[in-house]
Specification:
Layout lengths: L4 H6 L1 E3 L4 H8 L7 E4 L5 E3 L4 E3 L5 E4 L6 E7 L4 E4 L3 E4 L5
Antiparallel strand pairs: 1-4, 2-3, 2-8, 4-5, 5-6, 6-7
Bound molecules: zinc ion (ZN).
Length: about 90
């Protein structure tokens, strides 16, 4: 990544900033849902991931290795969800 780090941090919000979008997709509060990074094995709550909202859509990165764990892109009709960077995402049944 060629961007200077201060610029990167400027565009970074904490995972709770993504709460609204994730609530809409999964139909409930998601920030406390556990997940595991596919790249480094770190386990933690969705709310602890680094959130970038300036990228096209929403990007959640692992706070340990900075790799992308989850991407969300919304068009007027559809939501695209890319979770290749997560081993799992655990959702409470309702
Ligand atoms: Zn990681």
């Amino acid at each position: 990544m060629e961007e200077p780090m201060d610029r990167v941090h400027e565009n970074m919000l904490d995972g709770n900033a993504a709460a609204g979008i994730l609530d809409e997709i999964f139909g409930g509060e998601m920030t406390a849902s556990p997940t595991e990074c596919e790249h480094c094995g770190r386990e933690g709550e969705l709310g602890s991931l680094l959130t970038f909202t300036q990228a096209p859509g929403l990007v959640l990165r692992c706070p340990a290795c900075s790799e992308v764990m989850l991407r969300v892109v919304q068009t007027p009709d559809y939501t695209y969800l890319d979770v290749r960077g997560a081993v799992y995402l655990r959702l409470a049944r309702r």
